[in-house]
Amino acid sequence: METQIRNITLEALKYDNEKLRQLIANTVDKSTLNLSSSELKDRDMEIVAEELEINKSLTKLRLFTNQISDIGAQHLADALRTNTTLTDLELHGNLIGTGGLEHLADALRTNKTLNVLTMYGNKVKDQEAGFIADKLKTNEKIEPQIRNINEIPYTNPQLTQLIKSNINSTGANFAGKNLNDQDMKIVANELLQVNKVVTTLYLHANQIGDVGAQFLADALRVNTTLTRLDLYTNQIGDSGAQYLGEALKTNK
Q: Which top-rank group of organisms is this from (predicted)?
C-alpha cells in the first residue's frame, strides 16, 4: 500500500504542458521559437530547456512577457551551459530576480554563442546587475547587456513592419528610409540572420555609419543567401569598410 501511495504521489508531481509542446512542435521555422505572452511559468521552462538541448537549429528564443522567475531562469541556464546554437534570448517582462540572473550569468561565463540577452522589466536592480556584470568580464558581448539590464533597447516599429512585409521576398528595398546605425542592428538581427530567402538588400541613401556597418558585417558572417548589398550614399568610413571587408573574407 505504501508503495502504491508513493507511486501515485510521484505521478501527481509530474508536470507537463501539452499546449506548450504542441506550440513548439507546430513551429515551422525551427530557427526561431516565439513563446512570448503565453502565460508560461517556471515548470514550463523545463520543457523549453529540453528544446534547447535537442533543437540544433534554434538561434532565437522569445520568452518575454511571461511569468518566469528565478527557478525558470535556472532551468534555462542549465541548458545554456551546453547549447552552442542560440544567439538571441529575450526574457524581458518576467519575474526574474538577482538569483535567476546569477544562474544565467554563471552559464554565460562559458557559453560564447549567445549575443543578445534582453531582461529589462524584471526584478533586478541596476546595482545588483552591476555586481553580477563585474564577474562576467570573460564574456564581452553579454557583460554590458547585464550591466545595463534595465535599459529599454532601441526599436523602430516601422522598420520591423517593413522587414515582416518582405519576409518572403528575394529583394528588400530600404533605400532612402532615413535609417541609422541602430536600425542596422534590427536589419541584422531580424532580416540577415534569420531570412533564408532575401538575396538583394538596398540600403543606399540612408544615415548608416561605421557602427551600423559593423552590425551588418557581423550578420554577413553567418548569412548564406545575400548576393547584393547596396550601401552607397551613406556615412560609412574606413573602419566601417574594414568591418565589411573582413566579413566578406568568410562570406562566399
A: Eukaryota
- pTM recorded for the entire structure: 0.64
The 10 Å CB-count burial string (b at 16+, else e) for 136-152 is beebeebbebbbebeee
For the sheet containing 200-202, what is the strand order? 171-173, 200-202, 228-230
Gap between the Cα atoms of 208 and 183, Å rounded: 9
- Contact criterion met (CB below 8 Å) for 122 and 92: yes
- The reply to whether domains 2-147 and 157-250 share a CATH topology is yes
Domain ranges of the chain: 2-147, 157-250
Question: Which three cell numbers, joined as nine digits, stand for 221?
Answer: 558572417
Residues 81-129 pLDDT 10s: 999 999 999 999 999 999 999 999 999 998 989 988 999 899 999 999 9
Q: What CATH architecture applies to the domain 2-147?
A: Alpha-Beta Horseshoe (3.80)
Report the DSSP beta bridge partners of residue 229. 201
